[in-house]
């Protein structure tokens, strides 16, 4: 496993923690001042944090990759939220096949990246010269 393994671990951590939270009765959202925050928004916040840390600090790349992996895990785990605009978001929608498929696809992509030598090298045919 290379450095992108940290992104894989981050994605798995986010998906697992979100699924456990909802599965143990935590609900689909968290409210602050009557604004509902789904874990999709946690993912966006983590992406912003990762960008700020990359620009403003000397955080190790492994930590940044873990943060980005978590962010993508939270976002992928709420993929049906993005498609449910205008209708109530329920637990049945959360467990829909599309939502679960997005989790699996993200984990497979992260696993594939963790097995390659560079970010793009070997991931897409014809991109060996990129890095």
Summarize this structure as a short list of keywords or feature phrases.
131 residues, mainly alpha, two-stranded antiparallel sheet
Structural notes for this entry:
The chain is mainly α and 131 residues long. The protein has one domain (5-115). The chain is 65% helix and 5% strand. It has helices spanning 5-26, 39-56, 61-77, 79-83, 91-94, 97-115, and strands spanning 30-32, 35-37. Strands 1-2 form a two-stranded antiparallel ribbon. Strand 1 (30-32) and strand 2 (35-37) form a beta hairpin. Helix 1 crosses helix 3. The radius of gyration is 16 Å and the shape is globular. The two termini are 18 Å apart.
Order of strands across the main sheet: 1-2
- Measured on Cα atoms, how large is the radius of gyration? 16 Å
Kindly state the percentage of residues in helix.
Answer: 55-70%
Helix/strand structural class: mainly alpha
Poorly predicted spans: 119-123
Beta content comes to under 5%
Give the end-to-end Cα distance, rounded to a whole number of Å: 18 Å
Shape: globular
Helical stretch tally:
6
Number of domain units:
1
- Major beta sheet summary: 2 strands, antiparallel
Roughly what is the average pLDDT, rounded to an integer?
76
Strand/helix succession: HEEHHHHH
Q: Tally the beta strands.
A: 2
